[in-house]
Design a protein that fits this description.
By secondary structure, the protein is mainly α. The chain has 7 helices and no strands.
Amino acid sequence: MDRHGHVGFNLLVFAPVAYYFLHTDQTTLAMIGILGLFMLEPLPDIISGIPGVQNRGTSHSILSALVVGILCSILLYILSRHLVSMVMQFIFGQSIVISDMSQQNPIDANRNAWIGFFIGSSSVIIHILGDLLTPSGIRPLLPFAPFRLSLGIVPDQGWTQFVLFIGGVLTFGWVIVSKYPVVGRALLNSLGLYLL
């Protein structure tokens, strides 16, 4: 699957999650989720570009999704534990006492670690699922089992990638407009389509 196909597939898969977050007033999680998805989802193809790494090999496996999830979890945990104190040290030049508890951080590091794991692993899994739709398929249990899975629904290249892209953009656009109708009206007006 090419980049257009992956972007469209990402938007199609994430649209229901974003809809839930937006309509339960968790806009920050929706924004973090889509940002994390687009930052991390290309990793399997980026890793495949390294000399000696086979395309759709271990980088396109469940093991890769777990490794990326764990690394994101550790990174967000460390940032959550130390980010507030680092920022305060930088801004004020000294440690700041928060509610008479100098060692307590108001950011929930454990929750953020779980969010990091979920975003990291699900981003790679969504990428893998997109490639599962193609005739080339994936080998999800590498390095433990070499069998290949393929649904062969979407060609690896071609106009169907663009259809996926347009479908994803329209679906995700509908999710945003369903929560913020003014945004949709302004967008349509900017395109010259005036509605009541």
